[in-house]
Amino acid sequence: MQNNLAPIQDLYLSHEKAQNIKLEAAKLPSLDLTPRQICDLELLLNGGFAPLNGFLSQLDYNNVLENMRLANGHLWPIPINLDVTVEFAKNIELGDEVALRDQEGVILAIINITDKWTPDKSDEAQKVFGADDLTHPGVNYLHNQAGQIYLGGPVTGIQQPTHYDFRERRNTPNELRTYFSKMGWHRVVAFQTRNPLHRAHQELTFRAAKEAQANLLIHPVVGLTKPGDIDHFTRVRCYEAVLDQYPSSTTSISLLNLAMRMAGPREAVWHGLIRANHGCTHFIVGRDHAGPGKNSFGNDFYGPYEAQDLFRTHETEIGVEMVDFKHMVYVQERAQYESIDEVAKGSTVLNISGTELRRRLDEGLEIPDWFSFPQVVAELRKSRPPRAQQGFTVFFTGFSGSGKSTIANSLMIKLMEMGGRPVTLLDGDIVRKNLSSELGFSKEHRDLNIRRIGYVASEITKNGGIAICAPIAPYSSTRQAVRESIETFGAFVEVHVATSIEECERRDRKGLYKLARAGKIKEFTGISDPYDAPLDPDLRLETENVEVDHCAHQVLLKLESMGLIRG
Fold first, then answer.
1. Which of 67, 114, 135, 195 is catalytic?
2. Mean pLDDT over residues 331-343, rounded?
3. Separation between Cα atoms, residue 74 and residue 212, nearest integer Å
4. Which of 5, 227, 435, 449 has its CA 20 to 30 A from that of 210?
5. Per-residue confidence (pLDDT) for residue 2, from 0 to 100
6. DSSP per-residue string spanning 369-399
7. Contact 474/404 with Cβ under 8 angstroms?
């Protein structure tokens, strides 16, 4: 077992050297990092990703994919690469130095480029996630958000990323090791979570600490998690609300700025290595650890205890002991939580899934005390009020001339007439004029336009308003990305206005189809550019020989059935 109290090597320069090099770094080509890249960089720099000294080389990357090991043989299951656009990569040569900046332009580090390559992302998906299936959030990110080119090379840290939230709860690996040393904690069991703490989690952590005869570190992830997860602000408030349920002398909480991949078994091994770097000696691996849910065939991506099996295989190398647990359920007759394999035959087992919890929150239904703490429920209700009080987005998609804008306008008027929440219409033509006037109609520009609409809609939704969007939005991957960005804050209702291309061309009020047929408009959806029709929209509208008012009313009925408005 490792010495969990000794300092770990980080990649930061001394303050004096950092100040000197910062001046030189300002002259270098620079890259504004994405939120996920900032998470990765932070853990590279502070030693959380030790023994990595930067973003993976191509040789290391290939070895990680094939063997879960770096080229030198060190265990490492998840590729950590700097993904960039083709345009950015064109201007970068091997041996170049690039300043890595946060989203406000602050220089965090310098990378020395040793490798540049185009990865086979389908191969990466198969080997890291076990499937090239876009329903997996990690695979979806890989194909639809990550850059096409990978850069590798060692990094030199200039300063830590700035966090303005919960600063007293954020600790580097060395800060935790110093704390454990001060407290005399030679045995520490870490609990990984991306969810609020409910009573089942409390029982699991109590048991784990007792079994390992160790102190408890509640170590939740506050970087990127699964789309649709409860935001970390709410979760941290939930953790703080129930800390008094734990003995203060043997329990601590620290926040981990990790961007999860939801890679199941591989991710469990990765989490173990990260906790070893943070000074922990034991790690809880539960049922379906870091699992993303169902695949496109309705089956779980990973077996319920597959992560435990893989972790057990590499336990010695990881450097922490696994504390494995089965699924915890509430046994009514005994009024307590028990592991599913301990439950006596004939007992009444109660459980509330994450889906059921969200339903109860959305509908304002009771959440029983046996399931969660009143303090946690109160915090959850603050951030997730009943659906009829939440913001939401109605997203129309369809061909030009399908009737999207007309129906959207009618819907807007009806919702404004009902009152209760502000309503904003983001029509495709209006957005093009006021928000995306500099964009053309290439796939890249179409994607950017839709993502801008999605961003505005997510802000409206987050703040309790109703956003009605009516672009063409021809690409399913872009629509899915917008859905994920909005569902963090509220409902996303996709409405496919399924008017045929023949009918749209017959209507052609603006003469656009005639111009497209004549070749005067390039990349026109349905004529010279493809349209990915939604396979499973929330609502599909047929508009031929149907009044606009009827179509808008169908949307209202759908919103009512979803609990978003009251009839």
1. 195
2. 90
3. 27
4. 5
5. 54
6. TTTS-HHHHHHHHHHS--GGGS-EEEEEE--
7. no
Task: Say how far apart CA 290 and CA 271 lie, in whole Å.
Answer: 9
Long-range contacts of 410-417 (CB under 8 A, 24+ apart): 410/548, 410/549, 410/551, 410/552, 411/468, 411/552, 411/555, 411/556, 412/468, 414/552, 414/553, 414/556, 415/466, 415/468, 415/556, 415/565
Radius of gyration of the chain (CA): 26
366 by Cβ neighbours in 10 Å (0-12 / 13-18 / 19+) ranks as exposed
Identify the active-site residue in 36, 194, 199, 235: 194
Q: Are 39 and 254 in contact (CB under 8 A)?
A: no
Q: What is the pLDDT of residue 330?
A: 93
- pLDDT given at position 567: 63
Reply yes or no on whether 509 is catalytic: no
Which is catalytic among the residues 81, 193, 277, 397?
Answer: 193
Q: Please indicate whether the domains covering 15-157 and 387-561 agree at the CATH topology level.
A: no
What's the number of CA atoms in the CB half-sphere (13 Å) around residue 176?
34
Integer Cα distance of 31 and 105 in angstroms:
9
Mention the CATH class of domain 167-256+262-383: alpha beta
Per the annotation, the verdict on 215 as an active-site residue is no
CA distance 77 to 66: 9
Q: Is 195 an active-site residue?
A: yes
Whether residue 1 has pLDDT greater than 60 = no
Are 393 and 491 in contact by the 8 Å Cβ rule? The answer is: yes
CB 271 within 8 A of CB 43: no
Cα–Cα distance, 495 to 19 (Å, whole number) = 54
Residue extents of the structural domains in the chain: 15-157, 167-256+262-383, 387-561
pTM: 0.83
Domain 15-157 carries which CATH code? 3.10.400.10
Q: Is the previous residue joined to 161 through a cis bond, with omega within 30 degrees of 0?
A: no
Query: What is the percent of the chain where pLDDT is above 90?
Result: 71
Spell out the CATH class of 387-561. Answer: alpha beta
Q: In this predicted structure, what is the pLDDT of residue 317?
A: 96
- Answer whether 84's CB lies under 8 Å from 147's CB: yes
User: How far from each other are the two terminal CA atoms of the chain, in whole angstroms?
Assistant: 62
Two structure tokens written together for 5:
């109290």
